[in-house]
Amino acid sequence: LPSLSVPSSMHLIQVDSVQRWMEDLKLMTDCECMCILQSKPISIEKDEQNELILSSQYSTCDNLQLLLKRAWIISTELTRIAQKLEKNRWQRVHSMTVRVNCHVRSMVNEYNTFSRDSSEEMHQLEKLLIDKCSEFTAFTERCIQTEDEQTLKSMKSCINETLTTVAQYFGQLIELVLTHEAQNLLRQIELSDSVYMTESAISSLFSLTQEGAHLCRIIAKEGGVVALFKICRQDCFRCLYPQTLRTLASICCVEEGMHQLEKVDGILCLADILTDNTHSEATHAEAAAVIAQITSPHLTFTQHLSSFLENMEEIVTALVKLCQEASSGEVFLLASAALANITFFDTMACEILLQLNAMKILLAACSDKHIVDTPYSRDQVVTILANMSVLDQCASEIIQGNGVQLLMEMLFERSSSGNSAEVAACERVQQKSAVTLARLSRDPEVADVAVKLSCIPRLIKLCRSPTERNNSDSVLVACLAALRRLAVMSPDGLEDSDFQQLVKPRLVDSFLLCTNMEESFV
User: Fold this and answer.
1) pLDDT, tens only, 420-449
2) GO molecular function, one example (predicted)?
3) Is there a domain that residue 36 lies in?
4) Do 267 and 304 form a contact (C-beta atoms < 8 A)?
5) Suppose 481 and one of 18, 241, 293, 438 were both cysteines; which one would form an S-S bond, judging by CB atoms 3.0 to 4.6 Å apart?
6) Which residue range is the domain that position 449 belongs to?
7) Which residue pairs from 212-216 have beta carbons closer than 8 angstroms and sit at least 24 positions apart in sequence?
8) CA–CA separation, 37 vs 28, rounded Å?
9) Rounded to whole angstroms, how far apart are CA atoms 369 and 365?
10) At which of 160, 178, 196 does a domain end?
């Protein structure tokens, strides 16, 4: 490229433009340009060291993000090559192979630019991958130079084999690189006495956990949970507790993270943090988030729950206090989510909640729109109410706290944004409020309050109008069950047609009738 004389007043614009161009170029460029510019660093001055400007300005976290983005592109391209190969699109296969070759070389060069301590094993794997990519490109080039069907057919199996080997080497290299980087970050966390350096390493580690379960497994296997709990047991790092706990919650979404948590008595550490009033609300909230994660009813591995039961009373008490004193909707959401999950796996938790007047606290929180401000928060509250409603003592608590009124309001829950996650949360709120009403209405006093609050017409509307329940079958079943329970307690509240269609038949028949209803029938 010819050198240009740029006025000093234009220097800032020139630098910004070049940097922007370089960022775009790294991921969006023609194969021919890549081949020509490959490994040609652009220096600031002729005599200065030949280092890419880009690499010096990025942190370790940014470099890893770039590496992961490049890896995703290569993985996608390899999948597409396999698809084009099936259709014998030889020209496309070759051009894509050249592109993959360029991306692989760029990825290796980029990684070696910011990583100065790569192992011999990694260098060997890089060489194997680059050599195999070159071989792959040579194979596909020969394919576009011949039109003989038999030759192409015999070469196709070789290309398939080479593609499989490239994918295998690529997967091994990425695994090795990510393991190496996780080890470096964890070594930094374990050896550093500096709050700043430790915070930087934890931040990078958290970014890695956001890339999916596979990276969480790598971090867990390399001792991530152990290292992070070690931070949570040192007073000198108290200011890092929220960030550390947030990272732990992410790692504990995988089984390997759970096993590590069990080994280091992580639940006892979480209980200590939650019950220590000297910690900040942010620390308590993030500890609640870890509890919510490890008690999730969606997890299939539950070995850790035995040690959880030993500390459950302390944890539940602390979480109820956090709900009561929450200064924001986010803190309340995390604490109530943890409580909701706990009520799923042990009825003792519901009894503890009753003793702690949790029902009164949760119902009071729902009247504060700054605290319970989303369908997600209401979903957690109604989950707790539904699970507690199996206890007979629960009915009087609900009536005293105007809980039936709240359940009635929840039957009207609708999404304001149309966001799919929010719509799903609204459906869960409607379903669980109907379930709670059905369970509580075995008590005549609750049923009487529900009838007076016009719960029956609302339940009928939800059964008969698919749009009211967002076409949700689970909401329909729950509403039919609640309606039948209230109809037993107050048969005069229904018109004959409603009774004949929604109450008298078997539940499955009423369900089929309602799912086939058109809006015009409403």
Assistant:
1) 999 999 999 999 999 999 999 988 999 999
2) cytoskeletal anchor activity
3) no
4) yes
5) 438
6) 432-521
7) 213/253, 213/254, 215/178, 215/182, 216/250, 216/251, 216/253, 216/254, 216/256, 216/257
8) 13
9) 8
10) 178
pLDDT score, position 437 = 94
**166, 112 contact by CB (below 8 A):** no
What's at 353, amino acid-wise? Answer: L
| Res 185: pLDDT | 92
492 within some domain: yes
Q: What is the DSSP string of 131-184?
A: HHHHHHHHHHHHHHT---HHHHHHHHHHHHHHHHHHHHHHHHHHHHHHHHHHHH
Half-sphere exposure of 365 (CA within 13 A, CB side): 31
CA distance 295 to 207: 23
Number of separate domains in the chain: 2
Q: What is the pLDDT of residues 192-247, one digit of tens each?
A: 889 999 999 999 999 989 888 999 999 999 999 999 999 999 999 999 999 999 99
Three-point CA angle 331, 334, 339, nearest 5°: 125
Asked whether the beta carbons of 106 and 74 are under 8 A apart, the reply is no
> Among 54-63, 97-106, 126-135, 163-172, which stretch is predicted with the lowest mean pLDDT?
54-63
Domain boundary among 163, 178, 193: 178
Compute CA distances 140 → 80, 85, 166, 176, whole Å: 15, 10, 14, 28
35-49, 224-238, 503-517 — which is least confidently predicted?
35-49
With left for phi above 0 and alpha for psi between -120 and 50, is residue 6 left, alpha or beta? beta
247 is a domain residue: no
What is the per-residue burial (b if ≥16 Cβ within 10 Å, else e) of 351-372? ebbeebebbebbbbbbeeeebb
- C-beta separation of 483 from 447 below 8 A: no
Residue 53: which pLDDT band, with cuts at 50, 70 and 90?
very low
Name the CA dihedral angle for 416, 421, 423, 427, rounded to a multiple of 10 degrees: -140
pLDDT tens for residues 355-390?
999 999 999 999 998 999 899 999 999 999 999 998
Alpha-helical (H) ranges within 6-89 are: 11-27, 31-37, 53-57, 60-86
Measured in residues, the chain has a length of 522
- Rounded to a whole number of angstroms, the CA Rg of the chain reads 30
Q: Nearest Cα to 101, choosing from 122, 73, 125, 124?
A: 73
Task: Between 1 and 22, name the one with better pLDDT.
Answer: 22
Which pair of structure tokens corresponds to residue 121? Answer: 């094993």
Query: Is residue 276 situated within a structural domain?
Result: no
Contacts of 19 (CB under 8 A, 6+ apart): 53, 54, 57
pTM of the model: 0.80
451's tokens: 């009838």
Each residue of 7-20: pLDDT tens digit?
443 344 444 667 66
CA distance 39 to 449: 76
* Angstrom distances, CA of residue 469 to CA of 423, 427, 474, 508: 10, 7, 9, 18
Q: What percent of the chain shows pLDDT beyond 90? A: 49
